[in-house]
Design goal:
427 residues; alpha+beta; 7-stranded mixed β-sheet; 6-stranded mixed β-sheet; 7 helices; globular
Length: 427
């Protein structure tokens, strides 16, 4: 069965229609959910321009509006908020987080799905306070979700989310930081205050997170590091990328799982000192034989990384950039002496989509079956150009996109976009 795109809207001139919900087999993806009206601006009932300081606070009004959208959208796809297994939030301002969490606990009930919350540089609506992505299973799937709380693997009590969720043969692990029970960075994950070179901070944080957070969470759910299907990594010091990749690659016995690494601006994570956050989706051990490594000749940010992994009807893709071993690909570089004839972002997106087409084809599907496309932009002014490149590939079909602005230091000089794709393989 092919994916079904739902909640279609078009915002702005020249932008592609937005598929805010995608039903993909047993799963429903909610993408780029903000508190907008039909014109693509923040809803007047959220802004309350007549009495903006009326209770409840603006951030709570916005969160309630978003969860109303989520509830209606999931219901239309024969799912519900009770079936949510993962939720991701992007905020331009950390002060939104606590009031949002209060509403989220009320909306999702006693078990809040594994969550990742990141401070970003901007959203598509400059006055929006939060954007949400969510994933849920359908009612007819008869899937059961089992919350797990491995010892010493948790999150802030006020957030209320389950650190780990076993859902059929999938394991969802919330965004993890290298912190201990106090909520602060663990002593083992920091260089002593009196020392210059007793370890390097990013290496210590990453190793601590792998050994004391990710491994215990996965083992409690009957999984392991080598069964990770997809990881998302947020680095608040982009210059830490090479040392992070060394530690991350060393953590795996075989290939590095598909990983999207996103540069954000410090501080951007729940603990002010933290420089890295990682969330993962993995397969349970009982599903090991069904995990398929998707291999094809596509340059990635690390040559040890798999382009994608597949479990049943879901495709998990590594973060894609317009890069090769020489840096920014030649095809994505405008002519230096005549740069105005071509759009740099369109050239970069076109290269990324060529890579994506090869990966999806190697997995047995195509870009018509993208269930989620998160655009991490150095400049959100580039989004319309990225849409133009998408249009060359999938025409005017709706795109299940999210677009956020992150740190413009994207590891490779000249790079402007990191694309994070999730796919479906129709039966």
């Amino acid at each position: 069965m092919a994916i079904e795109k739902m909640g279609l809207r078009t915002y702005g001139v020249g932008h592609k229609p937005h598929a805010s919900f995608v039903k993909a087999g047993r799963w429903v993806f909610a993408n780029g959910i903000r508190a907008l009206d039909e014109h693509g601006v923040v809803h007047p009932s959220v802004l309350r321009e007549d009495r903006p300081l009326n209770a409840p606070p603006r951030a709570e009004r916005e969160a309630r509006f978003i969860f109303d959208i989520l509830g209606d959208g999931f219901a239309a796809a024969n799912s519900s908020l009770a079936n949510v297994v993962r939720v991701d939030q992007y905020y331009p301002d950390w002060r939104t987080v606590d009031p949002y969490h209060s509403v989220r606990r009320q909306a999702l009930g006693k078990v809040v799905a594994p969550s990742t919350s990141i401070i970003v540089d901007g959203l598509m609506n400059q006055d929006a306070l939060v954007e949400v992505q969510a994933l849920a299973f359908t009612k007819e799937s008869n899937i059961k979700a089992e919350p797990l709380a491995p010892k010493k693997v948790g999150g802030p009590a006020e957030s209320g989310y389950a650190p780990c969720l076993l859902v059929d043969d999938l394991v969802f692990v919330a965004g993890q930081l290298a912190r201990d029970d106090s909520g602060d960075i663990a002593p083992q994950a920091r260089v002593p205050d009196t020392q210059f070179w007793r370890g390097t901070r990013i290496r210590l944080e990453t190793r601590y997170m792998v050994e004391h957070r990710l491994k215990p969470a996965l083992e409690a759910a009957g999984s392991s590091l080598d069964l990770i299907l997809k990881a998302q990594v947020y680095l608040s010091h982009p210059e830490d990328f090479p040392m992070f990749m060394q530690v991350w690659c060393d953590a795996f016995e075989s290939a590095v799982p598909p990983t999207t690494v996103v540069p954000v601006r410090h501080p951007a994570l729940g603990t002010k000192e933290a420089t890295i956050e990682i969330n993962v989706i993995a397969a349970s051990t009982r599903a090991k034989a069904r995990v398929q490594d998707v291999k094809c000749d596509v340059p990635l940010i690390s040559n040890r990384m798999l382009p994608a992994r597949r479990l049943d009807d879901l495709l998990f893709v590594a973060g894609l950039m317009a890069v090769d071993e020489g840096g920014l690909v030649p095809e994505a570089r405008p002519e230096p002496t005549a740069p105005y004839y071509k759009s740099g972002i369109e050239l970069q997106t076109a290269d990324i989509l060529r890579k994506a087409e090869k990966i999806f084809a190697a997995a047995g599907t195509d870009l018509a079956n993208v269930a989620r496309a998160i655009h991490f932009h150095a400049d959100l002014g580039d989004f319309a150009g990225a849409c133009n490149a998408w249009r060359q590939v999938i025409g005017n079909d709706a795109l299940p996109y999210s677009a956020v602005k992150v740190n413009e230091s994207m590891f490779v000089p000249g790079a402007k976009l990191i694309l994070d794709l999730w796919g479906h393989l129709p039966s």
